[in-house]
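seq:
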Amino acid sequence: MKNVEVEIQVVIKNPKKVEERLNEVGKFIKERKEKDKYYVTPDRNFFDKETPNEYLRIRYEDGANHLNYSYIDFDKKGWIKASNEYETLIDKPEIVEEIFERIGLIQKVIVTKIRKYFKCDDFEVTLDRIENLGDFMEVEAKKDFGGVVKTRKACLDFLESLNVEYEMKKEAGYPRMLYKKLNKK
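struct:
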């Protein structure tokens, strides 16, 4: 299934305060642990690019494992505009992993996170604690506000309305940030 996501990802300084604010403006839905394993082909290492624009991953998630390929659209200034995602449920992710390895795909990074989901009107907000990386928040529009540009602005407006401390980084994307951090050694 193809899905176009418009979302904003930010680093948060005080997760408890942010969570309190989200409980004021929305509703807590669930918490779950996710483990994402990212792969590349030998001739196309997505992580070789300064700004990777595609990812192939297997997500291990209690009761809902996924295979996902994402292609990211950037604006002219290099900020993420939207993500085109192709995703399907898989019953046995370990079999997909074995297939990937047998055909020569290479695992590049594993992102492990505890994710809390909140429903805030037309937005899904997640608080993410990423192992070896820190605390983040994602604001994703769950409706089209009149195209990608207007939908992204609606996400930014919602984020601002929360009145919480955050830092927006151009280098968004957990796999990219974690890969860079782990390979600086």
